[in-house]
Amino acid sequence: MASAAPRHHPATRALSDRSEWVDRWLSAVADLDELSRSNPMSDAVIDEIDGRRIRIGDRWLIDYASCNYLGFDLDPEIAAVIPGYVERWGTHPSWSRLLGSPVLYTEIEGRLTELLGCEDTLVLPTITLIHLSVIPVLAGGGTVFVDRRAHKTIYEGCQFASIRGARIERFQHDDPEDLERLLRKDRSRTRLICMDGVNSMTGNTPELPVFAEIARRYDAILYVDDAHGFGVIGERREDETSPYGMRGNSIVRYFGESYENIIFVAGLSKAYSSLAAFIACPSEIKQLLKTAAPPYLYSGPSPVASLATTLAGLEVNEKRGDALRAVLWKKTDRVLRCLDELGIYTPNESGLPVIEVPLARHEEIGDVGRFLFEHGIYVTLAAYPLVPRNEVGFRAQVTAANTDEEIDQLIDTLGKLAAAFDLRPAPRQTKEAAA
């Protein structure tokens, strides 16, 4: 007997009847929609955690989808401070920041300013809200030059800026020459260059000093989103404990750069495992944003628990953050060396703990996800249109909280995966095959 046609929600039917754009949109995200409906690695309900292991239904998996790089989400010293702060401040300060802020914000902003070595900082709830509100303010009616591979949330902010009269120009990914070509032709009084710090898929960094020099030469602002780098990479020193540098105080400090002509944006939801984000900027820009940025004027603020764990995390970072980063580097290096020995390609050239593994055949993404799930490995699946079809694959994020035994299991599973599926070969393997 033929199955009944699927019943659609009345709102969906109404939209479909009124416009063809719904069909075009559904077609564009068909691969992702199929993955989210049919794969246990997508849109999962996590029932329980135990360290860096998660339970989905009756199956336990090792979590390599977390971005809690330093393991602060599981740190007993950090978690222990929450009850005292909640007892003092309640669960949530429901004023908008325009009306009033707990002194915790002032303490966090002061600590961040010292850590980063910048002029000032402003804490807001999320990076996404920062992009949507700050990029239009900084762009004014000028031109925004955005890296073609910048994070989707940066592009959303740029679209808001265009509604307010800014012109958007895209330059080739990590290509300073293409950026300069566009800048030479531009006659705007205001120029904003938007790009990622540590790339959220490849884990690689741009040549920040080159872009900073171009921004200063053309009197532009370089706007850098370092969501995945803050807390992991920082200033280089002779006594550094790993190639990630020290203190985790940003890609700007990692490259020995100043904040001249640089607006730096990062989140506390990854390395610091707290719901908050911040913008490092001159004090006059901070004051402007207090009257011009909707998240400061209207949004509900971060919960007290996140403000508390941010402050505790900053303390822990000073005491033992560099030791955690050394552990994180060693574990990440083991996984990258495994891929190298297996001849599997990853675009990761930085050694940072964001490891993308593209597939040779994008249509196998669902099967690869199920294979990893059945072998107890939980990762981020990157399907089209989240990434181009030739980059469809998965991303594993190593954290300091992953045990050596969990790294062993990931390495063992990668070997089995390579035997069962066509993963993209490393370039040297391709050359050897051609010879």
Would you kindly provide a brief summary of this structure?
The protein has 435 residues and is of the alpha/beta class. The chain has helices at residues 10-18, 21-28, 30-38, 76-79, 82-89, 103-116, 127-139, 152-163, 176-185, 208-217, 251-254, 283-292, 294-297, 304-342, 365-374, 404-420, 427-434, and strands at 48-50, 53-56, 59-63, 120-124, 143-147, 167-171, 191-196, 221-225, 262-267, 277-281, 354-358, 377-378, 380-382, 393-397. Helices cover 43% and strands 15% of the residues.
Describe this protein with a few key phrases.
14 strands, seven-stranded mixed beta sheet, alpha/beta, single chain, disordered C terminus, 435 residues, globular, 43% helix, four-stranded mixed beta sheet
| Largest beta-sheet characterization | 7 strands, mixed
Rounded to an integer in angstroms, the radius of gyration calculated over CA atoms is: 23 Å
Distance between the termini: 56 Å
Number of strands: 14
How much of the residues is beta strand, in percent?
Answer: 5-15%
Quaternary state reads single chain
Q: Give the overall form.
A: globular
With strands numbered from the N-terminus, the spatial order across the biggest sheet is 4-10-9-8-7-5-6
Number of helices: 17
User: By helix and strand content, what is the structural category?
Assistant: alpha/beta
Low-confidence segments:
1-6, 429-435
Helix content: 40-55%
Q: Give the mean pLDDT.
A: 92
